[in-house]
């Protein structure tokens, strides 16, 4: 059973994303409509880890389809997993030809990140990459994968991207932005000539079930567990295509020059205030439970 019907997809775009004339736009230029949907979605639906952190440890699980639908329609948001699965179903309900694909965002051989491939968007056989949530990284439009060895550079917000063909896989690189250090570990990782290799992925279509075993490895709270979605309170969104994020005990705000200004949060009260100010759609009791679990030293 599909997550969304066509009427529910239209309702989401009209009521939540505040868009209009959807059927007419799809008929006249579905590629431009797709980019408008991506842009509006990124401005309104936050990535956040609060929902899962606030859940009792023994009850950790992947979101159900009902969870995902409720979280996104309420603009509460959620993990990359939740959001790209929702977005794939949204596009499918509207009539786009899309599938899920698997990405290794930590370059450790674990293909746990969900993203989307759109095909036959402008011409038969074309392929476009869609990723509405990947941590703090901005993706404001679908990006063409129709190139031979290396794509043109694509500027999205404060970052510049390019793709490269690597055998049967593709890699996504972003240019190091020295004016905005510390964004998802810019200073570390696989870096060549000022470009950071952020992820690798295949074009093989994947079903939701493929991601379950990989995603559950991230639902751990032990400080020594390595990569985990539960080790920091995080939330971000892109109003007017500018990053607004809370990452642990830091507030990150992108200014009009594309520079990320980082401010230290000084107390638990200030942390709760900032979540209430910038992410009021996330229930305050969840934020408080998450803050209690983190036990940050301000």
Q: What does this molecule look like?
A:
- By secondary structure, the chain is α+β, with helices and mostly antiparallel strands.
- It has one domain: Arylamine N-acetyltransferase fold.
- Helices cover 31% and strands 23% of the residues.
- The strands form two sheets. Strands 2, 3, 4, 5, 6, 7, 8, 9 and 10 form a nine-stranded antiparallel beta sheet that branches. It has a five-stranded antiparallel beta sheet with strand order 1-11-12-13-14.
- A hairpin with a 2-residue loop joins strand 6 (154-156) and strand 7 (159-166).
- The radius of gyration is 19 Å and the shape is globular.
- The termini are far apart.
Write the layout of secondary structure elements.
Blueprint: H1 6-16, H2 22-44, E1 47-48, H3 50-53, H4 65-73, H5 80-94, E2 97-104, E3 113-119, E4 127-130, E5 143-144, E6 154-156, E7 159-166, E8 169-175, E9 191-192, E10 195-201, H6 209-215, E11 234-237, E12 244-247, E13 250-254, E14 260-264, H7 268-278, H8 284-294
Antiparallel strand pairs: 1-11, 2-3, 2-10, 3-4, 4-5, 6-7, 7-8, 8-10, 9-10, 11-12, 12-13, 13-14
Helix pairs in contact: 1-5, 4-5, 7-8
